[in-house]
């Protein structure tokens, strides 16, 4: 009887470890993706800022002309 319980415990631990490993891998992948997404967002923000700046300059010029 004792042997069976020990075996069960070991199996559970093994499963847990596997799960953990998988989770870790997934997390790492997500982290990589996150950084890529962040970079993309930054680029978009920069573009938006530039657009807004151009608009502002244009409006200033218009005001000056008036």
Write the SSE topology.
Blueprint: H1 2-65
Overview of this protein structure:
With 66 residues, this protein is an all-alpha fold. 97% of the residues lie in helices and 0% in strands. It contains 1 helix and no strands. The longest helix has 64 residues, at 2-65. 0% of the residues are buried. Residues 1-15, 33-58 have a biased composition (Basic residues). Residues 16-32 have a biased composition (Low complexity).
Task: Give keywords.
1 helix; rod-shaped; mainly alpha; 66 residues
Largest sheet: none
Residue-averaged pLDDT, rounded? 73
Overall 3D form: rod-shaped
Report the radius of gyration as a whole number of Å.
28 Å
Q: Please report the number of helical segments.
A: 1
**Poorly predicted ranges:** none
Strand fraction equals under 5%
User: N-to-C SSE series?
Assistant: H
Using DSSP, what is the number of strands? Answer: 0
Pairing-aware structural class of the strands and helices? mainly alpha
Terminal CA distance reads 96 Å
| Helix content percent band | over 70%
């Amino acid at each position: 009887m004792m042997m069976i319980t020990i075996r069960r415990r070991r199996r559970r631990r093994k499963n847990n470890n596997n799960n953990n490993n998988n989770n870790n891998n997934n997390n790492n992948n997500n982290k990589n993706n996150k950084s890529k997404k962040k970079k993309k967002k930054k680029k978009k923000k920069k573009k938006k800022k530039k657009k807004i700046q151009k608009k502002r300059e244009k409006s200033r010029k218009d005001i000056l002309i008036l």
